[in-house]
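Re: [ENG-882] Designed sequences occasionally contain unexpected residues at chain ends

Forwarding the minimal case from QA. Structure tokens:
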């Protein structure tokens, strides 16, 4: 339950609150006990430092194409999700028989192509930048696993085209999958199973991985360039990022 206090009383001392007639004891944090909004705010501040969820300032080294590729990947992913939802709403034959369906299907295809181009370049730039430095190992792992999940999502998407291309891809893939023993429960010749996996299971997995990746990026900050002014590998440098230093200064453990 949210506790209501008079204007200006949220920073008042316990004595002052008593004088205002507020039936609460302790400091302002204790007043918020039992409030779901205070609980949610506390959980968020434990995940991402205050002001870092949507920052309006970034270090100078972020003004480089190497740091833009992640955002470009997210932009392409947004187009993939929107066009995919439109295709799902139109039905399994809409993109074959309607002009608008052809257009949306083309948008979906080309946004997927751009998504993979941006993501692969982003992955390689992060690799050569050793982006796992400064306690960012989990950030790197979630990004790499999201890349692998995206490959599976794209593969099932090609199998769901319901045309000769999808039939040929399924026919060639079944032998390979059967040879490793997974063809019994992952039947690429079953278009219904492939479509449901493509529009439900894998998008949820990839979406959760992307959210975890973004939270970790905002929690630990973007990695500085190797040899740059904030290079953590230089002699005498600490392994604490500026964001983490500010985080520790406020008494929270990252």
């Amino acid at each position: 339950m949210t506790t209501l206090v008079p204007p200006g009383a949220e920073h008042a001392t316990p004595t002052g609150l008593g004088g205002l007639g507020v039936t609460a004891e302790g400091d302002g944090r204790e007043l918020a006990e039992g409030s779901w909004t205070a609980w949610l705010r506390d959980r968020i501040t434990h995940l991402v430092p205050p002001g870092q969820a949507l920052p309006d300032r970034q270090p100078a080294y972020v003004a480089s194409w190497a740091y833009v590729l992640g955002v470009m990947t997210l932009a392409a992913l947004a187009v993939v999700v929107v066009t995919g939802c439109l295709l799902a709403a139109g039905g399994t034959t809409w993109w074959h028989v309607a002009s608008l369906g052809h257009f949306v299907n083309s948008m979906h295809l080309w946004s997927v192509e751009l998504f993979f181009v941006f993501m692969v370049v982003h992955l390689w730039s992060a690799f050569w930048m050793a982006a796992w430095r400064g306690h960012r190992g989990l950030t790197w792992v979630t990004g790499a696993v999201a890349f692998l999940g995206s490959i599976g999502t794209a593969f099932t998407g090609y199998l769901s085209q319901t045309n000769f291309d999808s039939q040929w891809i399924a026919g060639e893939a079944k032998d390979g999958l059967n040879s490793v023993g997974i063809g019994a429960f992952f039947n690429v010749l079953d278009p219904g199973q492939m479509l449901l996996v493509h529009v439900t299971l894998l998008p949820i997995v990839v979406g959760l991985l992307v959210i975890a990746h973004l939270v970790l990026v905002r929690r630990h900050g973007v990695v500085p360039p190797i040899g740059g002014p904030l290079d953590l590998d230089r002699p005498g440098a600490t392994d604490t990022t500026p964001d983490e230093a500010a985080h520790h200064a406020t008494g929270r453990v990252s």
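QA comment: On inspection the terminal residues look reasonable. The first helix runs from residue 14 to 20. Proposing we downgrade this to a documentation issue.
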